[in-house]
């Protein structure tokens, strides 16, 4: 008689025979590297809630104006709407960015310190730009007017007075009488933006039944197309912030779809510094990560070749390199520092600052087989991006401290948490690197 199988050994083997479907930290990602002393799950919740809070505030505070001239040449409108007086009027009304469709014009876009401005000549479909705008400024063409009204956006029509037998007045005046839009000329554009209340405008004019049927058919077709795209997972932004497993204790990674993680972290740090209100209990440090790659010198060098020019191709500045490693001894700190320093110096007369006051800091965080990279500003000023230290430090940082006893450190509780965090991860800091060694790297160029 055959022996009965041992059930306990069967289930014991089955216990380890499973597939881990969790998202893992891997190359070609961007997001936020977060550290804590304990309570990883609570830290993860705090990090995601904090990021959502500030990203939603940023989206709500952004207002866009879209300017279109169709296929015509109407440089007078483009020059007027980009005039400093007009831009200031838009800014006072809460607008933060502008999109210009300049058609056949010869307008040359110049940088503005009032609004963020982008421009293009033509697109197959300007509908998406109209949809995401909060105000549309259009020429007097009937097609552009009706398209803007279709999307239910506040509309300001600017009449081109130089056209012969100008018929634009008739359509604009009729629709203005029924409170569907406002119209003006280039001369009075800034005054209209300053004083008109666009919330008083009515919605799109009513149409006959046949037009409504055609419109309903078009809507159903567009909905079917949208549902098809939503059925493809690759085309859907399911979650703006999602956790990824690092395989390292007390070290978390939150992947993101936002364009620039650094801007979001700056906003958080600046608000914490201003309010001195502690918003996290478990989350200690949050580093923005612009790109991840494999943890080897060749991959790190290649990733930095694309990352560094954005920050170091301009005027000379001071920089430092922060190198930390966790569960990885194959990537050598000195080799990485030398390679990145060579790349930075090749862009211009940039100098190393190891005093903690470098304007730009290159973050190199090696986590097992993945390297996380970014370039941040004010790394020393924001206490190495330690959220608790930013909240707890004194407002005035003098040589002797506020009490004159020379102690200008954070509160004992924050200081103890910082010390515990340093014990929980294997870190090497380039600020402890002898200055002669970094200087030698620079002198070779």
TrEMBL record:
<feature type="region of interest" description="Disordered">
    <location>
        <begin position="396"/>
        <end position="445"/>
    </location>
</feature>
<dbReference type="Pfam" id="PF04101">
    <property type="entry name" value="Glyco_tran_28_C"/>
</dbReference>
<feature type="compositionally biased region" description="Acidic residues">
    <location>
        <begin position="419"/>
        <end position="429"/>
    </location>
</feature>
<comment type="similarity">
    <text>Belongs to the THUMPD1 family.</text>
</comment>
<dbReference type="Pfam" id="PF02926">
    <property type="entry name" value="THUMP"/>
</dbReference>
<dbReference type="GO" id="GO:0003723">
    <property type="term" value="F:RNA binding"/>
</dbReference>
<keyword id="KW-0694">RNA-binding</keyword>
<dbReference type="GO" id="GO:0006400">
    <property type="term" value="P:tRNA modification"/>
</dbReference>
<dbReference type="GO" id="GO:0016758">
    <property type="term" value="F:hexosyltransferase activity"/>
</dbReference>
<dbReference type="InterPro" id="IPR007235">
    <property type="entry name" value="Glyco_trans_28_C"/>
</dbReference>
<feature type="domain" description="THUMP">
    <location>
        <begin position="271"/>
        <end position="377"/>
    </location>
</feature>
<protein>
    <submittedName>
        <fullName>THUMP domain-containing protein 1 isoform X1</fullName>
    </submittedName>
</protein>
<feature type="compositionally biased region" description="Basic and acidic residues">
    <location>
        <begin position="430"/>
        <end position="445"/>
    </location>
</feature>
<dbReference type="InterPro" id="IPR040183">
    <property type="entry name" value="THUMPD1-like"/>
</dbReference>
<dbReference type="InterPro" id="IPR004114">
    <property type="entry name" value="THUMP_dom"/>
</dbReference>
């Amino acid at each position: 008689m055959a022996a009965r199988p041992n059930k306990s050994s069967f289930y014991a083997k089955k216990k380890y025979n499973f597939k881990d479907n969790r998202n893992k930290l891997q190359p070609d990602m961007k997001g936020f590297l977060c550290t804590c002393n304990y309570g990883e799950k609570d830290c993860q919740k705090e990090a995601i809630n904090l990021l959502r809070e500030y990203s939603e505030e940023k989206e709500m505070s952004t207002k866009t104006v879209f300017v279109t001239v169709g296929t015509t040449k109407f440089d007078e409108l483009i020059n007027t709407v980009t005039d400093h007086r007009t831009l200031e009027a838009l800014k006072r009304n809460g607008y933060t960015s502008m999109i210009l469709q300049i058609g056949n014009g010869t307008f040359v876009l110049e940088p503005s310190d009032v609004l963020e401005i982008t421009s293009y000549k033509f697109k197959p479909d300007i509908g998406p730009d109209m949809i995401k705008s909060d105000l549309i400024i259009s020429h007097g063409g009937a097609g552009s007017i009706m398209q803007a009204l279709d999307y239910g956006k506040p509309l300001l029509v600017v009449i081109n007075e130089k056209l012969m037998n100008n018929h634009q007045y008739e359509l604009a005046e009729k629709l203005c009488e029924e409170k569907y839009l406002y119209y003006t000329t280039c001369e009075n554009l800034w005054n209209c933006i300053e004083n008109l209340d666009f919330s008083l405008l009515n919605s799109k004019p009513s149409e006959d039944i046949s037009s409504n049927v055609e419109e309903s058919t078009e809507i159903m077709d567009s909905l079917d197309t949208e549902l098809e795209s939503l059925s493809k997972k690759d085309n859907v932004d399911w979650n703006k912030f999602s956790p990824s497993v690092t395989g390292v204790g007390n070290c978390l990674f939150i992947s993101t779809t936002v364009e620039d993680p650094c801007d979001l972290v700056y906003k958080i740090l600046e608000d914490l510094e201003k309010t001195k209100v502690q918003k996290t209990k478990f989350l200690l440090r949050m580093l923005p990560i612009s790109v991840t790659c494999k943890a080897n010198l060749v991959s790190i060098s290649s990733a930095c070749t694309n990352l560094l020019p954005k920050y170091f191709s301009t005027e000379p500045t001071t920089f430092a390199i922060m190198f930390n490693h966790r569960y990885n001894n194959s990537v050598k700190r000195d080799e990485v520092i030398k390679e990145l320093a060579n790349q930075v110096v090749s862009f211009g007369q940039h100098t190393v600052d190891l005093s903690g006051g470098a304007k730009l800091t290159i973050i190199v965080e090696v986590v097992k087989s993945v390297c996380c990279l970014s370039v941040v500003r004010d790394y020393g000023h924001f206490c190495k991006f330690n959220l608790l230290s930013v909240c707890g430090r004194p407002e005035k940082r003098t040589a002797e401290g506020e009490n004159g006893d020379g102690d200008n450190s954070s509160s004992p509780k924050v200081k103890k948490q910082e010390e515990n965090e340093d014990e929980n991860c294997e870190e090497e800091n380039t600020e402890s690197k002898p200055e002669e060694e970094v200087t030698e790297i620079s002198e070779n160029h």
